[in-house]
Every structure is written in C-alpha cells, then in structure tokens.
Design a protein that fits this description.
Layout: H1 7-29, H2 35-41, H3 46-67, H4 71-74, H5 76-95, H6 100-128, H7 136-161, H8 167-187, H9 198-201, H10 216-244, H11 250-261, H12 264-271, H13 276-300, H14 303-329, H15 337-362, H16 368-401
C-alpha cells in the first residue's frame, strides 16, 4: 500500500534518493581508474581485471534476483539505509585490500550494494518524484547512477594522480558521503506501508507486467548493448589509456571512463524532447556509429577523436536507455515498479557481465583492440534487433489506431 505525501515530503525524499544513487555508484566506480595500479601492485593479469567487473556484476545480479522486492514489505527507507551501509562496508574492504581475492570481494560487495540501489533506491526516488515534468524521474534514475560512476572514477583519479592522499583516503571520503546520505534518507518520508511476505519475496524471480511484454525486445536490446560497452570501459579504461593511447596517467584513465558516463545525463535530458520510441531509435543508431568511431580511434591510437567519440556515445546511450526506461515505466503501476526496475537492471547488468566473463576466459588469446572489435560487433547486432523491434511496435500501434 502506498502512502500519500505532501510536496515538501516528496522533494525531501527525491533529493535523498537522488543523492544516495549518485554516491553509491560513485563509491562503486572509485577502484576503476586504479585498476592499472592494482594490476602492478597485486600482480594481476588482464583476466583478473575482467573478473573484477564480473564480480561486480554478479553481485548486482544476485542482489536484484533475491532482494529486489524486499522493500515492498520492509519499506523503501530501511532497505535503502541497508544499501548505504553495504556500500560503506565495501569501502572498508578496499581500504585494507592486499591481494586479488580481497579486490574481488570488495567489487562483489559493491555489486550487491549497487543492485539494491538499482531496485530499492530507484523505486524510492520514483515514488517521491515530482509529477511535472513527466520525464524527470526516468531521467534521474537513468542519469544519477552514471553521473555517480563518472564522479567517483574521476575523483579517485585526481586524488591518486596529484598525490592528494593515499588510495585509502579516497574510500574514507566515500564513507563520509555515504553517512551523509544516510542522514538525508533518515529524515525522508517512507513511501510504502509495511506488509507481510518478506520471506516469500526472497524467492528469485523476474517481475515484468504482461501489458509491456511487446515493448521488451527493443528495450532489452538497448539495455544490453549500452551496458555491455559500459562494462568494457569499466574493465579496460585504464588499460586503454596505457596501451592504446600511450599514457599511464590515472587522470586520463578516469577521463576515459567519465567521458562515457557523464554525458549520459545529457542524453537522459534530451530524451524528454522526443517520444520514447523515437528516443530509442535515434539513441541506438547514434550509439552504434559512435562505437565504430571509438574502435577506429583505438586502432590508430589518437586520443582526442577517441574521447570525442566516447562523449557522443555517452550522450547516445543516455538517450536510448532513458527512452527505453520511459517506454516501460509509463505503463507500469507503483506496485509493480520495484519488480520492473530490478528486472530492467538485472537484464542490463547481465548484458555487461556476460561479455566480460567471456573476455576473462579468452583475454590471453586476443589483443585489447580485438576485444574492442568484438564489443563493436555486439553493438551492431543489438542495433539491428532494436530497430526491427521498434518498427514492428510502430506497425502494431498504427493498426491499433486504425
């Protein structure tokens, strides 16, 4: 059962949810520009780097499958507070990391926290979102995580590059920020009434309302394609900077990742200027063209065109992903929202985890450029599938209208 909130309560909860999303994902991205440092200090391999992404995404998937609907029974706010606590625990692990297993455990716990954030904190944010403009909630829950990912990666890179503190100092900052978000969340409103059935809710299942089944092929293709590239950048941004762009700068490594993630918010904002299906179509075509440009830039090792193409890819994926999110959320009730969001992110994280798992197994047999080409072929495939599905949806809509 949902609760009726006044405007001040909604804005308090919306700000708390948005800030929490940004900080949880920022904390989860802090290790990314440092992976090349961990590679050297912990004696890791390219396969180990891919496994850090796999550990993160596996944690996300487990969290989404098992805990996604717990907030429907215990309440959004207490589960959101638990999410912030888990993120802080992961930061503590990274403060004391000394070997590859600890690194993987830290990424796994961060994955659990991010998965919970994807379902519970996003649902809390949407529950509290202002009713106008209509596209705001979809743009925020699509954009806040990637803004956080960018800020965390870039912040960690700046601290390391300019010796502003030890690697532990980065995680200590995030522990403080997570505590601040917990304070905001504690004074925010609860949006659902507690009900029985929490044990039953732990049974893994994918929850998607039947009335949006016809929208899934296009949306899933876009989720998988865009997040697969995000997983590639997460695992290999520091290596791309070192091996293909001829620089060992941690700032450049962070910038490579941030250039993909930060513009995502611009794409989310742009999606409000289009109908959802049009945003999906424009977004995925532009994304494919940008990834082709990224791959060419890597082949000839030219940094500026690579970064420009990456920025445009970030805008394109924000446009396509937010359009897909809007197409589904617009036809979903509040009671189905947490389950739908968990399913969306489960699909998205799987789209990032599976290619990275394959790469982890095969990394020793291919160069980094060849791996990038493989990801480009995946994007080409999902682009074709999504365009076909969107055309089919449009024909069905036109027949219904007539």
């Amino acid at each position: 059962m949902t609760k009726k909130l006044n405007l001040n309560e909604r804005w308090t909860g919306f700000i708390a949810g948005t800030a929490s999303l940004v900080v949880v994902y920022a904390a989860s991205s802090a290790p990314i520009p440092l992976l090349n440092t961990y590679l050297q200090t912990l004696d890791l391999t390219s396969g180990d780097l891919s496994m850090t992404a796999v550990a993160y995404f596996v944690g996300c998937v487990i969290s989404l499958l098992t805990f996604a609907r717990v907030s429907n029974h215990l309440g959004r706010r207490p589960v959101s507070l638990a999410t912030l606590a888990l993120s802080a625990i992961a930061c503590v692990i990274f403060i004391y990391v000394q070997n590859a297993p600890m690194l993987l455990i830290g990424r796994f716990v961060q994955g659990i926290a991010s998965g919970l954030a994807s379902s519970t904190i996003t649902a809390y944010t949407v529950d509290n979102a202002p009713t106008s403009p209509k596209w705001l909630s979809a743009a925020v829950i699509s954009g806040a995580p990637v803004v956080g990912l960018s800020a965390g990666a870039f912040g960690a890179g700046v601290i390391k590059e300019y010796s502003l503190g030890s690697m532990s100092f980065t995680y200590e900052i995030f522990i403080v920020l997570l505590a601040f978000c917990a304070m905001l969340m504690a004074v925010g409103p609860e949006t659902v009434t507690r009900t029985r059935g929490v044990i039953t809710s732990l049974v893994p299942r994918i929850s998607i309302p039947r009335n949006i089944y016809y929208l899934l092929p296009a949306a899933i293709s876009i989720f998988v394609g865009t997040w697969a590239i995000g997983g590639f950048y997460q695992a290999f941004s520091s290596t791309m900077a070192a091996d293909l762009l001829n620089t060992n700068s941690i700032i450049v490594a962070a910038a490579v990742f941030a250039c993909l993630m930060t513009p995502y918010a611009i794409g989310g904002w742009l999606s409000g200027r289009f109908e959802p299906e049009e945003a999906q179509r424009i977004g995925i075509v532009a994304f494919f063209l940008c990834i082709a440009a990224v791959i060419y830039s890597l082949k000839v090792s030219i940094m500026i065109p690579f970064l420009i193409a990456t920025v445009l890819a970030g805008i394109s994926q924000g446009l396509g992903f937010t359009g897909s999110m809007r197409s589904l959320l617009d036809k979903t009730s509040q009671e189905d929202r947490a389950g739908l969001l968990s399913s969306i992110y489960l699909i998205s994280y799987s789209g990032a985890a599976i290619p990275n798992l394959i790469v982890a197994r095969l990394a020793s047999g291919f160069t980094l450029f060849e791996i990038a080409v493989g990801y480009g072929l995946l994007v080409a495939l999902v682009c074709i599938i999504s365009l076909f599905a969107l055309s089919r949806n449009k024909r069905q809509h036109d027949l219904t209208e007539n």
